[in-house]
């Protein structure tokens, strides 16, 4: 919070991330609602849900282009203006009679916009590194995580309610969404001189490398081979996301099977358990000066996975929802510690001219685990029984804990102190 109040450049990038998060949060849920009204709603909802993964899977590519951009600030403005234009086009197109080709066009607009957003986020990384003292990276990235998570949770709920109040006027919603991206662009323009000054320092220190995307990937992998800690973190995030991404779906299926876990009704129970994770993440990201501040990242993974195991055991036992809620809150709280710490270590350890590519690779690899885990665990829940899914989930998390304890005990974590 101290950096947000006193550091104008950092405050600008946070506000831009929040405005973009509002735009993403608003329309992602509204687009799923729109898809549910179409004659081919099952296909449409499935495609709309899966489309949110595509920008993450392309993050290595967008990271490469972000690293190659000669002017990060002007490229950020350009990216947000493209998003503004795309949603104005969507607002016009969505008024046409519903058809599969039209839906695919709207879906493509949404994907391209989210990809532009990912590109813009990559552009901000070297500026964040220059704007923040190393000792403040963890707290500053925690605040950014809390801010973006909060607006996405809140505005998804607002979007679902507002579209009803607007009598399902999807075109008007497209215009509202476009204005959030225009506001982000105008905010960057307003503080352009500050960001350009920081960028000029970064340019003198590290000029972008020339070369193809394949050359960039090769260089990125070569860098990671020399940094065993970051490589291990990337591999762990893949497996942790493989298990973690299935939690929401497993909660939904489990509550259908066991009414004893309900808090009043099914809808309230799903909402409370899912919100518990988000609420824990927000609190964990904001409360940076707790006991976990001095715990190394690998042990934070262990604590987070331990709460995941407790949640899995709670669902297997399926006698009380309160044990599960406490476990989910604890898991979310630790995730709120883990994600900013990883971001801070990446910002500190990776050369500036490769920041977006490495961060993109981290995002892409971790997201690859999500669909695999969902297929496996939700498949078992539907074909066999949801208790077997939770058993596999719990055992899997336990095996990762054992690997971290016995396989990474001698691994040195980069120190986040000022040079």
Automatic annotation (TrEMBL):
**Keyword Transport carried by entry:** yes
* Domain Major facilitator superfamily (MFS) profile per the UniProt entry, residue ranges: 230-419
Which regions span the lipid bilayer? 12-37, 43-65, 170-189, 229-258, 270-288, 295-316, 322-340, 361-381, 387-406
Does Transcription show up as a keyword for this record?
no
One Pfam family, short name: MFS_1
- Known PANTHER family for this protein? INTEGRAL MEMBRANE EFFLUX PROTEIN-RELATED, MAJOR FACILITATOR SUPERFAMILY ASSOCIATED DOMAIN-CONTAINING PROTEIN
What GO cellular component is one of the record's annotations?
plasma membrane
Keywords annotated in UniProt = Cell membrane, Membrane, Transmembrane, Transmembrane helix, Transport
Q: What is this protein called?
A: Transport protein, major facilitator superfamily (MFS) [Lactobacillus plantarum WCFS1]
Cellular localization per UniProt: Cell membrane
Q: Which domain of life is it from?
A: Bacteria
**Topology versus the membrane:** Multi-pass membrane protein
Classification via Gene3D superfamilies: MFS general substrate transporter like domains (1.20.1250.20)
Q: A Gene Ontology MF term for this entry?
A: transmembrane transporter activity
């Amino acid at each position: 919070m101290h950096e947000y109040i006193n550091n104008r450049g950092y405050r600008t990038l946070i506000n831009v991330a929040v405005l973009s998060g509002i735009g993403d949060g608003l329309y992602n849920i509204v687009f799923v609602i729109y898809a549910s009204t179409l004659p081919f709603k099952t296909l449409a909802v499935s495609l709309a849900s899966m489309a949110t993964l595509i920008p993450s899977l392309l993050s290595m590519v967008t990271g490469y282009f972000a690293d190659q951009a000669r002017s990060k600030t002007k490229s950020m403005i350009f990216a947000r203006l493209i998003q503004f234009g795309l949603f104005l086009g969507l607002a016009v197109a969505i008024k046409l009679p519903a058809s599969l080709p039209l839906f695919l066009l709207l879906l493509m607009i949404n994907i391209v916009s989210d990809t532009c957003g990912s590109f813009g986020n990559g552009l901000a990384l070297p500026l964040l590194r220059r704007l923040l003292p190393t000792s403040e990276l963890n707290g500053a990235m925690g605040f950014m995580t809390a801010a973006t998570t909060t607006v996405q949770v809140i505005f998804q709920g607002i979007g679902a309610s507002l579209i009803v109040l607007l009598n399902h006027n999807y075109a008007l919603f497209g215009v509202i969404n476009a204005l959030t991206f225009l506001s982000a662009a105008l905010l960057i323009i307003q503080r352009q001189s500050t960001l350009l000054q920081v960028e000029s320092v970064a340019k003198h220190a590290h000029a972008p490398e020339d070369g193809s995307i394949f050359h960039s990937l090769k260089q990125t992998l070569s860098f990671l081979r020399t940094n065993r800690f970051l490589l291990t973190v990337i591999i762990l995030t893949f497996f942790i996301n493989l298990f973690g991404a299935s939690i929401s779906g497993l909660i939904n299926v489990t509550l259908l099977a066991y009414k004893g876990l309900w808090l009043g009704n099914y809808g309230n129970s799903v909402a409370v358990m899912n919100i518990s994770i988000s609420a824990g993440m927000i609190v964990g990201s904001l409360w940076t000066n707790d006991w976990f501040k001095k715990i190394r990242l690998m042990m934070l993974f262990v604590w987070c996975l331990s709460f995941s195991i407790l949640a899995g055991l709670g669902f297997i036992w399926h006698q009380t929802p309160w044990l599960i809620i406490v476990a989910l809150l604890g898991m979310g709280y630790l995730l709120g510690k883990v994600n900013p710490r990883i971001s801070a270590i990446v910002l500190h350890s990776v050369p500036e001219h490769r920041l977006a590519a490495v961060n993109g690779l981290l995002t892409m690899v971790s997201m690859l685990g999500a669909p695999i885990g969902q297929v496996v665990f939700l498949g078992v829940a539907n074909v066999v029984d949801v208790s077997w899914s939770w058993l596999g989930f719990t055992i899997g998390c336990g095996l990762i804990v054992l690997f971290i304890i016995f396989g990474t005990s001698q691994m040195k974590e980069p120190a986040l102190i000022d040079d």
